[in-house]
Amino acid sequence: MTDIPRRAVSRTAKLAALPLGFAGRTVLGMGKRVTGLASEVVSAEIQQRTAEQLFSVLGQLKGGAMKFGQALSIFEAALPEEMAAPYRQALTKLQEAAPPLPVGSVHRVLAEQLGSDWRSHFVEFDDTPAAAASIGQVHRAVWHGPAIGASGRRGRRAARPVAVKVQYPGAGDALLADLKQLSRLGAMFRVVQPGLDIKPLLAELRERITEELDYGLEAESQRAFAAAYADDPDIFVPEVLAAAPRVLVTGWVEGTPLAEIIASGSTEQRDRAGELMATLHLSAPMRAHLLHADPHPGNFRLLRDGRLGVLDFGAVARLPEGTPEPIGRLARLALDRDADAVVEGLRAEGFIRPTEPIDAQAVLDFLLPLMDPLQADEFQFTRAWLRREAARLANPKSPAHQLGRQLNLPPSYLLIHRVTLGSIGVLCQLEARAPYRAILERWLPGFAPVG
């Protein structure tokens, strides 16, 4: 195999085999229950085998399949512990690694994108990828030359360590094929997260395919972030040195991956990473007028000097006016227990349909537990807290679930909503404690108390 698997028949066959394999394991479980084996043992065995097959296939296929798996991985913290264990190892692997593209294919793309003399830009180039993701892989190299393709401005010639992101040949075709097929597998993905509605997620991924495939556009976003956070004491964004549609060269970021901190980091590392993740998420729309929209742990490093290194700007939300003011204003009204004003504001923004009768106090009761992180000077995000909230919202018999069915998510808030949920998932994986309310008061329009 020289390129990303992209023949529709081949990719569809692999993806279609997933629910069949799951069905077979379910039948196996039923047979073992007949023999008297404890149901929880059967269930755990089925979940483990399903996880291994699911994320193995998603990782092998790269493209939209792997991207979707990475999107799912940030919700791992919401799973009950007895279910999370068999998935956690597979999810972590998927966040940081995938089968590499052959060396010949890498060199071919570099020659096509940077010219036949592409090697002249590098003092060294490591053919073994340092990381691999959904639509491209990253190689470590030493760049020797000025920045090129940076809006006409050429930088100082100097040798420096760089990350060279190379897009898989056929990535576009693979993304389209995967998303079409994955939309048919909703029932199987509920094994990973019961109640998860994958349709909005898939629709959003589909809309962003074109943007994420264009590394030139990603370079523009990264330059905007780098300018907004230049010399920042907390956030580090590497500079862009060269950009082409399928190759991106940026400064190398040396640090501890968040996935490693999640697995074995100290309390100090966890708390620091969580505080900086929240700061980035909330400040970027106001400073860069962009929102980093891919919050899985593989895109962040904790640097030795305590800053958060931020990678991968292919998925961003453009917010020219910054974070919508109603988000902060309605959060503050909820904390002030003004139920009628909250309902009025939600209705004005389209979260409640114009003619939908609704109990204002029930809406407040629905929202306040979700706002626990803002009701104290400090809050520790935990897996237990997220599981409790997920169970409260997903239980068909709970008042919260019933009320949730009356609420709507306006399209203009879909990406902000998903990124917020994803960021919270990472904070819960980190089990991070920080003064989150103060971060919101600084960066979220409309949230700071008046007077």
How would the blueprint of this fold be written?
Elements: H1 8-34, H2 39-61, H3 63-73, H4 81-96, H5 103-114, E1 122-125, E2 131-132, E3 136-145, E4 158-167, H6 171-182, H7 186-189, H8 198-213, H9 215-228, E5 235-236, E6 240-244, E7 247-251, E8 256-257, H10 258-264, H11 267-287, E9 290-292, E10 300-302, E11 308-310, E12 316-318, H12 325-335, H13 339-349, H14 360-367, E13 379-380, H15 383-394, H16 399-404, H17 414-430, E14 433-434, H18 436-443
Parallel strand pairs: 5-11
Antiparallel strand pairs: 1-3, 2-3, 3-4, 4-7, 6-7, 8-10, 9-12, 10-11, 13-14
Helix pairs in contact: 1-2, 1-6, 2-3, 2-4, 3-4, 6-8, 11-17, 11-18, 12-13, 13-14
DSSP summary, beta strand count: 14
**Can you give the helix content as a percent range?**
40-55%
End-to-end separation = 65 Å
Number of domains: 3
Radius of gyration: 23 Å
| Average pLDDT, all residues | 78
Strand percentage lies at 5-15%
Note the overall shape. Answer: elongated
- Flag low-confidence runs: 5-9, 15-44, 61-66, 188-196
Structural class: alpha+beta
Number of helical elements: 18
Biggest sheet character: 6 strands, antiparallel
Comma- or semicolon-separated keywords:
3 domains; six-stranded antiparallel β-sheet; single chain; alpha+beta; 451 residues; Phosphorylase Kinase, domain 1; four-stranded mixed β-sheet; 18 helices
Task: Report on the architecture of this protein.
By secondary structure, the chain is α+β, with helices and mostly antiparallel strands. It has 3 domains: 8-96 and 188-195, no CATH class; 103-167 and 214-251, Phosphorylase Kinase, domain 1, CATH 3.30.200; 254-451, no CATH class. It has helices at 8-34, 39-61, 63-73, 81-96, 103-114, 171-182, 186-189, 198-213, 215-228, 258-264, 267-287, 325-335, 339-349, 360-367, 383-394, 399-404, 414-430, 436-443; strands at 122-125, 131-132, 136-145, 158-167, 235-236, 240-244, 247-251, 256-257, 290-292, 300-302, 308-310, 316-318, 379-380, 433-434. Strands 1, 2, 3, 4, 6 and 7 form a 6-stranded antiparallel beta sheet that branches. A 4-stranded mixed beta sheet has the order 5-11-10-8.
